[in-house]
Structure formats: C-alpha cells, structure tokens
C-alpha cells in the first residue's frame, strides 16, 4: 500500500519565533559564550529565548553586562556582589527569576 503525497519527516529543527539577528546582535550573541557552566545556565537560555525580542535598552544593558569578567558575573548571579550599574543588577535579577521559573514549568 502506498501513501499519497505525504511529506517526509524532517530532521530539521522547527523554525524559531526569534527575528533574524543583526550583525551587532550576532556579535553580542557570540560574546555571550562564557566558560563557566554556572553562567551558561542563565545566559544561554536568555540568548536563545529572550535576547532578540528584548527592547533595545535591555539589549544594550545585556551587552554592557557582558563586558564584566566571568568571576564578577558569577558573583552577581549568586548574590555574592552587586554591579554598580543598577540596570545590570535589574537585568541579572530578571534573568535569574525567569530562568528559575522556567525550571518549574
């Protein structure tokens, strides 16, 4: 028995709802690759799911956050210290809250 015109299953990932990144956004996405798994736990999902649809001021704050050294970022995400820039602190807390609530669903 043959089937008629049924599409072959695809191994391609489903298209994302994310817009195509600009060259600057690609640069930031590349910079977001960190060497610490603890940071990747927060930053990778943010990049994949929220960064491209964030408003321009949040994207700028994220880019500024990435200029901080990994040990400093780890301290921010673990509440060991706090950045001087309040917008970065707010973004760190937003990412942490979002990431932990994501684990609950």
Report on the architecture of this protein:
It is built from five helices and no strands. It has helices at 23-31, 37-49, 56-65, 70-77, 86-104. The radius of gyration is 18 Å and the shape is globular. The N and C termini lie far apart (43 Å).
Features of this protein?
105 residues; 5 helices; globular
Compute the number of helices: 5
Write down the overall geometry.
globular
- Secondary-structure-derived class: mainly alpha
Total DSSP E strands: 0
Strand content: under 5%
Share in helix: 55-70%
Low-confidence stretches: 9-15
Rg value: 18 Å
| Alpha-carbon distance between the two ends | 43 Å
Q: Average pLDDT, to the nearest integer?
A: 87
Strand/helix succession: HHHHH
Q: Describe the biggest sheet? A: none
Write the topology of this structure:
Layout: H1 23-31, H2 37-49, H3 56-65, H4 70-77, H5 86-104
Write a brief structural summary.
This protein is mainly α. Helix content is 56%, strand content 0%.
